[in-house]
Amino acid sequence: MGRGAREAAAQSRGGRASEASVSPGQTIRAGEAQETGETPAKENHVATGAEQTRAPASPLNRSWLLRHFSLLLRRDRQAQKAGQLFSGLLALNVVFLGGAFICSMIFNNVAITLGDVWILLAALKALALLWLLYYTARTTRRPQAVLHRDPHAGPAWVRGSLVLFGSCSICLNVFRVGYGMSHIRCKSQLELVFPAIEIIFIGIQTWVLWKHSKDCVQIQTNFTRCGLMLTLATNLLLWLLAVTNDSMHHEIETELSALMEKFSGNNTNTCLCLNVTACEVFQKGYLMLYPFSTEYSLICCGVLFVMWKNVGRRLTPHTGSHPGTPPFHLHGAILGPVLGLLVLVAGTCVFVLFQIQASGPAIARQYFTIYYGFHAAALPTMSLACLAGTAIHGLEERELDTLKNPTRSLDVVLLMGAALGQMGISYFSIVAIVATRPHELLNHLILAYSLLLILQHIAQNLFIIEGLHRRPLWEAAPESLAGKWEAEPPRRGSLLELGQDLRQASLAYIHSYSHLNWKRRALKEISLFLILCNITLWMMPAFGIHPEFENGLEKDFYGYRTWFTIVNFGLPLGVFYRMHSVGVLVEVYLGA
After folding, report:
1. Which molecular-function annotation in GO is an example for this chain (predicted)?
2. Residues 156, 173: Cα–Cα separation, whole Å
3. What are the phi and psi torsion angles at 148 (to 5°)?
4. How far apart are CA 209 and CA 237, in angstroms?
């Protein structure tokens, strides 16, 4: 015990001696350092704790925001799909109802007459007109209504065709009103009211679609979708009625035969026109402009469908900024335009000869031979050009454009769907020729024409679709600039330098590709040749040449009513196919 006490006392004395050996200044500095060091230690401890507290909170907040925004986006997509589904079902039910009326009129014209179908269509037109006026006067004028406009929707050629065919449809209904007024003694008032309503409907619809075909509406989306689908269904029913209703054609033929019997001395009970010259003008105008009415309805359906797809669509700045397409230049292309002009001149000569013969009582068989012989020479050339262009597309270095583009998707669907019209007529002609008289020269030409037309549609669709899915040359990223970006990533605050680099690289890229290599030149030659050929093949059926109905072979085989429906179903689609092909071939030419 004593030894332990002595050791403790010695240690305490040593400690006091060591404290006494330290100078007062050092003691003060040590005390200050202790005091000042305590506060930073506490602050560092607090800061470290805060950092430790915030470190797990930042991903938590970020994950909460992601979940919140993804939930909002999911709800928005669900609401958009629900609106599309409801409006689609509305259009489907309207089309089924109108189709049931039209089919009942065809198969049982006693219970359901043409007047009943007109009343139904007049009610649908009135509803569609009310929505079109409301959309123009109220919906589009509200703030934040149209934030984006689709640069790919409603190109110039579509809107031009809309105005052209709409004007022809208005003239068609004017001729119908004139024809009805000349037979007012034996016509009902409904036959005059219905064309007048259709003139108003076509005029207002053409104006609205011309002005708002690029809109991406962001408000009243469900009501806008339903209005667009109602208008689309109305145009579809108008097209279906025009395809199946042959009452006007039958009435004109009956009146012509009655006039012949009257001149021969036989009395008939047919309602005849008092002014024969005026009635002849109305009849010729009606028969010539009849295909334009069906064309107009098809174009309106396409434009309305694109507008329906764009409702509620939000475009990114990159998507919304349409790159400036280059102007239309020949770039030294000679062979394609020359061959195309030769086809156009030859087709115009055949068209004039056929029209002169069509104005007479009957068309000689030699003119049918000239018509089908011209096509038997032009169609194989077009098919070979399309196959060569498709092969050149496979050799190109341009990448495929995989970005979402509703307008391009609709172009492809319309191209494939419209091709079915003329191909369907060709298959019916093949069956009729093989089953009857396949050994005559004219029948051989019709058979060759039908087969070559099917092959040409297939080859041209392949060429156009392949060209539409190639990235245009002016949108391709310069490889030198891409390499520079990979080697030297852009620094902060260097937007001006980046813009200058983009301009220099773009100018260098355009300068280096200002000359055409053989692949680009060949694609441009082929595109120009096909553009002129399709214009020629569009001109003939659009302005009154219908040898499929006038040669009498298929009409005798299938019957008048059946063949009338087949031709009126396929011929407008064929005219639309040629017109649509010209528009998309211009895009292929500019992108080559």
Report:
1. proton channel activity
2. 26
3. -130, 155
4. 18
- Residue 350 has, within 13 A of its CA and on its CB side, a CA count of 26
Secondary structure percentages of the chain, helix, strand, coil, to 5: 80, 0, 20
How high is the pLDDT of residue 123?
A: 94
Amino acid at 284: K
Confidence of residue 190 (pLDDT cuts 50, 70, 90): confident
Which amino acid makes up residue 424?
G
Q: What is the pLDDT of residue 330?
A: 57
Q: How far apart are CA 103 and CA 383, in angstroms?
A: 38
Amino acid at 222: N
Residue 324's CB is within 10 A of a number of other CB atoms, namely 7
Spatial separation of the C-alpha atoms in residues 315 and 462, rounded to whole Å: 30
Q: Examine the pLDDT at 511 and tell me if it is beyond 90.
A: no
The pLDDT of residue 252 = 59
Report angle CA 472, 474, 478 to the nearest 5 degrees.
Answer: 110
d(CA 475, CA 513): 13
Question: Exposed (0-12), middle (13-18) or buried (19+): which is 425, by Cβ within 10 Å?
Answer: buried
Using CA atoms, how far apart are residues 528 and 330, in angstroms rounded to an integer? 9
**Angle at the Cα of 308 from the Cα atoms of 303 and 312, rounded to 5 degrees:** 135
Q: What is the pLDDT of residue 397?
A: 65
Q: Is the pLDDT score of 59 beyond 70?
A: no
Please answer whether residues 527 and 340 qualify as being in contact, where contact means their C-beta atoms are separated by less than 8 angstroms.
no
Report the candidate in 463, 402, 406, 419 with the shortest Cα–Cα distance to residue 588.
Answer: 463
Instruction: Look up residue 407 and give its two tokens.
Output: 């307008």
Q: Which element (helix H / strand E) includes 148? A: strand 146-149
List, for residues 240-279, the tens digit of each pLDDT value: 888 777 555 555 555 555 555 555 555 555 566 767 777 7
Q: Tokens 């096509």 — which residue? A: 375
Residue positions counted in the chain: 592
The two three-digit tokens of residue 404, written as one number: 């979402």
> To which residue do tokens 């209504």 refer?
145
Identity at 448, one-letter amino acid code? A
In what helix (H) or strand (E) does residue 217 lie, and over which residues does it extend? Answer: strand 215-217
Residue in 195, 196, 197, 190 with CA at minimum distance from that of residue 116: 190
User: With contact defined as beta carbons under 8 Å apart, do 195 and 176 qualify?
Assistant: yes
- Give the per-residue pLDDT at 51: 42
For residues 270 and 176, is the Cβ–Cβ distance under 8 A? no
Cα–Cα separations (whole angstroms), residue 496 to 308, 490, 499: 40, 11, 5
Question: Tokens for 401?
Answer: 């454009």
Q: How far apart (Å, rounded) are the C-alpha atoms in residues 264 and 273?
A: 17
pLDDT at 180: 78
Measure the CA–CA gap between 247 and 219, rounded to whole angstroms.
44
Distance CA 392, CA 525 (A): 12
The pLDDT of residue 255 is 58
Distances in whole angstroms, Cα of residue 226 to Cα of each of 147, 207, 223: 20, 20, 5
pLDDT at 264: 52
- pLDDT tens across 392-426, in order? 888 776 666 666 676 778 788 888 988 998 899 99
